[in-house]
Amino acid sequence: MSDHESTYVPKTGVEKWLDSRLPIIRFGADYMSLPTPKNLNYWWTFGGILALCLMTQIVTGIVLAMHYTPNVDLAFASVERIMRDVNGGWLIRYVHANGASMFFIAVYLHMLRGLYYGSYKAPREMIWIIGCVIFFLMIATAFLGYVLPWGQMSFWGAEVITNLIGAIPGIGEPILIWLRGGPAIDNATLNRFFSLHYLLPFAILGCVVLHLWALHHAGQNNPVGILIPKDRAKKDLVPFHPYFTVKDGFAIILFLILFALFVFFMPNALGHADNYIPANPLQTPAHIVPEWYMLPFYAILRAIPDKFGGVVAMFSAIGVLFVLPWLDTSKVRSMRYRPTMRTFFLIFLAVGLGLGWCGGQLPDAPVWPGMPSPVIFDGALNSYLWLTRLLTLYYFVFFLVIMPLVGLKETPLPIPATISEPVLPGPDAPLGAPSAAVPASPEKKG
């Protein structure tokens, strides 16, 4: 892919002038004609969906910023004014609020696809690392935006999360005061969060450009996970347009139907009712929780009894993703041919869902009401806290222990010689002929 030659030919004088100075049209044309493996499935459509989500968030965010007032006395009322008095304000706000959830649904599926098919392996490490940077910026942007409505959950969520920074030895307290603009959450805090929330989406957009650039250079992975040799390019590769633009377009339509279902029929289903109560520093909510897409990391934070240890564990849960290309020791990319690793991956999916569930529960609430634990533990074993700790342990063991060891010990299934073999019996054989899969030797592994 990296040696793909440009086929763009400027036709008008304006195009020639621009192409000689800033070849932005050439970059777009080359991307549309980029040779792409013909066996990509619908799990590869989430890149286009994510691009749509990002542009939707930026456009609706700019409109909302025109009417929002970043002041602790007026912020909550300004949001209600957007809902009631601004033409189409209710729609813009619901699209923006639910768009954040849709954004995270798509990015989690996009990352899980990359994890399953080994898209982080050489030569695509930079694609994965830049994607992790985007994910981290998304979490920061979402947290800052969650504070802006200035409801009860907004205020107390900011109180809890910013207090975590103060747990960092030595530098935590000065950073906390700088971030808040003072010793407590107040007007200066809201102004800072509003400014950063407005800025970070454009930083995400810049990282997306780098992400696409790295993708253009290294090329697409594929479900089989093998490299496509040059002598197979004409048989195994097709232009991105029109083959995959049509496929992406169909997936985007289905995604927009789901999006519209939430916006028009259950716009507050993914939010928290307490955020429709104005922020009150003197009244603590019964249960402080972040948005649903942060619940797994919030659960990991609460799983550690030490405050600083919880902060380290929470950031390590994201940080471990950055070094994933070097933790996986297997020579085979796709888990389609790694049955042992696929089993551990399915358990990992269940653990991620379990962490999300535990993050939304009271940590000392009983998992099974009415079922006593041994007296010596005073019921502690029957609590979400201990369940969360077990799930957190597996989360880190999966990356730091299972992936390196299984990659060394596992015997993978035979890998096809070309990406055509899972569909056709052989590269040039007629239908009905036997397939010529090859064993998983280092020479044949992608």
From TrEMBL:
The chain crosses the membrane at residues 42-69, 90-111, 126-148, 160-179, 199-219, 240-266, 308-327, 343-363, 383-406. Pfam families: Cytochrom_B_C (PF00032), Cytochrome_B (PF00033). It is a multi-pass membrane protein. The keyword Heme applies. Residues 230-417 form the Cytochrome b/b6 C-terminal region profile domain. Keywords: Electron transport, Heme, Iron, Membrane, Metal-binding, Respiratory chain, Transmembrane, Transmembrane helix, Transport. It is found in: Membrane. Binds 2 heme groups non-covalently. Residues 14-224 form the Cytochrome b/b6 N-terminal region profile domain. Its cofactor is heme b. InterPro entries: Cyt_b/b6_C, Cyt_b/b6_C_sf, Cyt_b/b6_N, Cytb/b6-like_sf, Cytochrome_b, Cytochrome_b_C_euk/bac, Cytochrome_b_N_euk/bac, Di-haem_cyt_TM. Its main location: membrane. Residues 426-446 are annotated as: Disordered. Component of the ubiquinol-cytochrome c reductase complex (complex III or cytochrome b-c1 complex), which is a respiratory chain that generates an electrochemical potential coupled to ATP synthesis. Belongs to the cytochrome b family. The main subunits of complex b-c1 are: cytochrome b, cytochrome c1 and the Rieske protein. This is Cytochrome b. The lineage of its organism: Bacteria, Pseudomonadati, Pseudomonadota, Alphaproteobacteria, Caulobacterales.
